[in-house]
Amino acid sequence: MHKSERLFQLVNVLKGRRLATTAAQLAEHFHVSERTIYRDIQDLQNSGVPIEGEAGIGYLIANCPLPPMMFTVEELSALLLGTKMVGAWTDPTLSEHAKSAMAKIEAVLPTHLKQSQDDSPYLVSSYSHDSKQQALNKQLRHAIENKQCLHLAYSDVNHTSTMRQIEPLGLVYWGGKWTLVAFCQLRRDYREFRVDRIASATTLSTHFNTSDDKKLSHYVALVTAKYANCTNKS
């Protein structure tokens, strides 16, 4: 285990315990020597982490706020990949926040991990997510957050144009295509609209309310139950 990762985990272990933990216990947990634990404790204390205690008695972290970037190397890698996806596949506002988050994450990555990012097996492509698509995603997101109805000009799979007034509930990314999950006021039921087939969207001043049987989590539960039932029958 790299030292930087061990230091992150050491802080998390001490934060999660109410009683002092001895260097021997920590050494056994991390499969290192007690001398290594003593050096790690000293390094953390020098960096401002409020660890209290002494050799032979044990250590604990004082009850005070700690810096938020206490992640393992694997967690940092996952967060970095996730922010790249947000930056490429959502809207301009979230993309800027994602870039800011990426800069903070990369600032605390160990040197060896920064180098390994260039050889990552994952490539996040922004192909087909142009500025027009991103602007529409932003409009839809704002309507969802503010619970505002939308008027859509939509083209279905048969290229038939329809006009719908909907209550937008959530955006789902299916690996290449965004889908807008909504409650259709005409059909009085859930409907899915592929975002790339939305010709235009107008945000209305009309607001709507969600309920236990009209919200994204309820839609997901219905879809999950449907596919689970199909699987059991097969």
Task: Give short descriptive properties of this protein.
single chain, 234 residues, alpha+beta, Arc Repressor Mutant, subunit A, SH3 type barrels, 3 domains, five-stranded antiparallel beta sheet, two-stranded antiparallel ribbon
Brief summary:
This protein is α+β, with helices and mostly antiparallel strands and 234 residues long. The protein has 8 helices and 7 strands.
Give a verbal description of the structure:
By secondary structure, the protein is of the alpha+beta class. It has 3 domains: 59 residues, Arc Repressor Mutant, subunit A, CATH 1.10.10; 46 residues, no CATH class; 103 residues, Roll (SH3 type barrels), CATH 2.30.30. The mean pLDDT is 84. The two termini are 45 Å apart. The radius of gyration is 25 Å and the shape is elongated. Helix 2 packs across helix 3 and helix 4 runs antiparallel to helix 5.
Radius of gyration: 25 Å
Helix content: 40-55%
What is the end-to-end distance?
A: 45 Å
The level-1 CATH class of the largest domain: Mainly Beta
Number of domains: 3
Number of helices, counting only DSSP H or I runs of 4 residues or more: 8
Main β-sheet, in a few words? 5 strands, antiparallel
Bulk shape: elongated
Name given to the CATH architecture of the largest domain: Roll
Order of helices and strands: HHHEEHHHHEEEEEH
- Are there runs of 5+ residues with pLDDT below 50, and where? none
CATH topology of the largest domain: SH3 type barrels
Mean pLDDT across every amino acid position = 84
Overall SS class: alpha+beta
Instruction: Tell me the strand percentage band.
Output: 15-25%
The tally of strands reads 7
Question: Strand order across the biggest sheet?
Answer: 6-5-4-3-7
Protein name: DNA-binding transcriptional regulator
Domain Helix-turn-helix type: 6-59
Domain WYL: 138-202
Pfam family, one: HTH_11
